[in-house]
Amino acid sequence: MLKRAFFVIFFIVISLNSGYAKEKVFIDNWDIQQYRGQLGQWKLIGSKKILRYYAKKYKVTLSRISKLKGGRLLNEEYVFIPFSKEYLKELAAKGIKRNFVYKSKSEYIWPVEGIDRITSAFGMRWGTFHNGVDLPKRKGTPVIAAMDGKVISASYSGGYGNSIYVECRNNFYTRYSHNSVMLVKKGDYIRKGQIIAFLGSTGNSTGNHLHFEIRYKNIPLNPLDFLPPKKELYYGNKNIGKK
Ligand SMILES: [Zn+2]
Questions:
Q1: Does one domain contain both 176 and 87?
Q2: 212 Cα to the center of ligand 1, angstroms
Q3: Which residues surround ligand 1, an ion (CB under 5 A)?
Q4: Domain interval for residue 44
């Protein structure tokens, strides 16, 4: 009996470690987003007047907004406005909520929704090594966290432009580059599915796209080996999707 119980526990531990246990992953949308464990919305705030307008609309105090933000309000910057419980209830009554998917802890999700082509693959190109995959979309498209992790840096860094580097579990790292706007800061813990930036073309870039990397320690790996397979994924005229 004891032996059997031990076996069951052993099996559970193995299952958890190999990532079979599924968790609910919420995906941010234009209506509800998440930042530092709170639900609300990112808003471009140009003045105190606009800030007060949103505070009133979402039934939240100015002190709660500034506490969450940390630091002074600058002109023309994105500020996360948390929703009050009351406002969340109103949204729920209208059927407005976030979508979710079930994923294991080790599974990645696409950092840009609706991608059906890549403009640059992982590997050698023009005599240099391309460390990631380029995902084209319109400027301002939400960039969402492909994996949970801690933001190691979120700054303008040379050719990468506005770039977010994230430490994930088990020595894995992710990088999101060329963003027009970065919404997270160094030290933030981010959740899979959370909006962390808006796509752009900053740094050494010829068009709007997300340069996305997955690294193990410092070794770049092909993100397409980790992202959920797509049936249709074009690279030039060729469908490189997995059937
Ligand atoms: Zn790239």
A1: no
A2: 7
A3: 134, 211
A4: 33-93
